[in-house]
Amino acid sequence: MWRSEAAIRAASLPSQPNAGRQAHTSPNRAVDVTDREAMAARIGRMDRAAPLDLVIANAGTAGQHLPHGPERTRTIFAVNLDGVLNTIEPAEAAMAAAVISP
Prior knowledge:
Strands 1-2 form a two-stranded antiparallel ribbon. Helices cover 51% and strands 4% of the residues. The chain has a single domain, classed as NAD(P)-binding Rossmann-like Domain (Rossmann fold, 3-Layer(aba) Sandwich). β1 and β2 form a beta hairpin. By secondary structure, it is mostly helical.
């Protein structure tokens, strides 16, 4: 099941202070986690707005009925595996650059 932008917006939590810092939350816009370039662009914009020091890659999908056909299985892997990598890799690069640069 794909969540609509309205459902994502309705489920959003306001940012909370954390150790004297204001937590950064992204505007509630849906991004396809399977789209590597879109994820890198979104994470880049977020990092420029407020440098990243934490990333949570929490996307997932599953099927209701087994066995899955090959196309559904590929979709599940694209979201659950590639989506995590497409989130973590650009975030890791941004956080590493912040540690290296003065």
